[in-house]
Amino acid sequence: MKRSLIFFALVVIAAAAWYAMQPTYSEINFQNDQDMSLPAGALAAVNLPGSFSEQEQLGGRAYDADCASCHGVNGQGQDDVAPPLVHKIYEPSHHGDMAFVLAAQNGVRAHHWNFGNMPAVEGVTRSDVLAITAYIRALQRANGIE
Questions:
Q1: Torsion from C-alpha of 95, 120, 53, 44, nearest 10 degrees
Q2: Is the pLDDT of residue 79 over 80?
Q3: CA Rg, the chain, in Å?
Q4: Closest to 75 in 3D by CA, of 66, 86, 65, 64
Q5: Which of these, 8, 93, 81, lies nearest to 41 by C-alpha position?
Q6: Looking at residue 11, what is its pLDDT?
Q7: Where are the domains of the chain?
Q8: Measured between alpha carbons, how far is 62 from 129 in angstroms, rounded to an integer?
Q9: Adjacent-strand bridge partners of 82
């Protein structure tokens, strides 16, 4: 019993230490923002790939119609509005494609940023979101996010 309590206490201390080491919004280093000038209000500089596949082009058009008003042009984010999607936080190993589908379908509670909760996006289909995700992934790859 005593060992269990000690083990539990160590787990709690380790978890608290991990949480304390997580960057706050103001500490997050937006990629390339020191190397490139940012448009007014943008939170991340985004390099565009040389070309987009047909699905990525469809996703880009859907993104412009349904996502850019909050997440900014090319996923750069907007100060005091919404985070950049071309950011290491959204790399595929951390936020898989289904995370984008679920966020658009159901909304998502704020957990990485201080922008507040994201509401569900009315009128977008699962296939729209998958095309948008393909577009975002192409932008991410062009910016070194794999």
A1: -60
A2: yes
A3: 18
A4: 86
A5: 81
A6: 52
A7: 2-142
A8: 8
A9: 78
Using H for helix, E for strand and C for coil, what is the string for the chain? CHHHHHHHHHHHHHHHHHHHHCCCHHHCCCCCCCCCCCCCCCCCCCCCCCCCCHHHHHHHHHHHHHCHHHHCHHHCCECCCECCCCCHHHCCCCCCHHHHHHHHHHCECCCCCCCCCECCCCCCCHHHHHHHHHHHHHHHHHCCCC
pLDDT at 133 over 50: yes
Q: Which distant-in-sequence residues (6+ apart) come within 8 Å of 107 by Cβ?
A: 117, 118, 119, 120
**b or e along 75-103 (b: 16 or more beta carbons within 10 Å of the residue's beta carbon)?**
bbbbeeebbbbbbbebeeeebeeeebbeb
Q: Are 39 and 105 in contact (CB under 8 A)?
A: no
Whether 115 contacts 83, CB under 8 Å: yes
Please name the CATH architecture into which domain 2-142 falls. Answer: Orthogonal Bundle (1.10)
Residue of 116, 108, 103, 112 whose CA lies nearest to 66: 103
Instruction: For helices 97-106 and 126-142, give the axis angle rounded to 10 degrees.
Output: 130
pLDDT at 132: 98
